[in-house]
Write a structure and sequence with these properties.
Strand order of the largest sheet: 2-5-1-6-3-4
Strand content: 15-25%
Number of helices: 6
Structural class: alpha/beta
Radius of gyration: 21 Å
Number of domains: 1
CATH architecture: 3-Layer(aba) Sandwich
Number of strands: 6
Shape: globular
């Protein structure tokens, strides 16, 4: 009787796991890290979705997790998760070098660019030289948390950098606040 109960319990567990998998409820380790940290991340934090050659950094503020997934799928999921938050919104950076990488030197780069363009079509992205973005990221990593999600993609200059900004405040509101403070101080 006891063996039968154990077998039924294991069968129920297996069935519920298969159902969860088929319905997309099971999160991969990188997704668990993202969803766990997202409420903690705020203005000036970064999320980077990197290609496979991106170096493992040693700065204490940079945490690297590996995603055994297509990079564009990871970008899509990260942007979708950010869209559901109210406290942060991404400032998107891509490498200027990306648009100049030749298909003959990096087979698959054209399809990647097309896919990334589709993902970012409704979102403004800043295109800067790779070293400029890395400089911004390195500076931020000295003080602020950086979550780096490394993917198996083997194409150059394909990392997508997301600098988090305040989701409920903007530059115009800040400018008005500073003007009001200055006016109050001058009275």
């Amino acid at each position: 009787m006891r063996n039968r109960t154990i077998q039924l319990s294991l069968l129920c567990l297996l069935m519920s796991s298969l159902t969860a998998l088929s319905q997309g409820y099971v999160q991969l380790p990188w997704e668990r890290t993202l969803y766990h940290q997202l409420p903690l991340l705020g203005h000036r934090n970064w999320i980077v979705i990197a290609d496979s050659a991106y170096p493992l950094q040693t700065a204490p503020g940079i945490e690297t997790v590996y995603a055994e997934a297509e990079q564009l799928e990871v970008v899509k999921k990260v942007l979708a998760a950010l869209a559901k938050t109210k406290h942060v919104k991404p400032i998107i950076y891509t490498d200027a070098e990306l648009k100049h990488v030749a298909e003959t030197n990096a087979p698959g780069i054209t399809a990647y660019r097309t896919g990334l363009d589709k993902l970012l079509a409704q979102r403004p992205a800043q295109v800067l030289p790779h070293e400029t973005i890395i400089g911004k990221l390195d500076e931020a990593g000295k003080t602020f948390k950086v979550l780096l999600i490394k993917t198996p993609l083997a194409l150059p200059y394909t990392s997508v950098f997301l600098q988090l900004d305040c989701g409920y405040w903007n530059a115009d509101a800040e400018k008005q606040l500073r003007a009001a403070m200055k006016a109050a101080d001058s009275k």
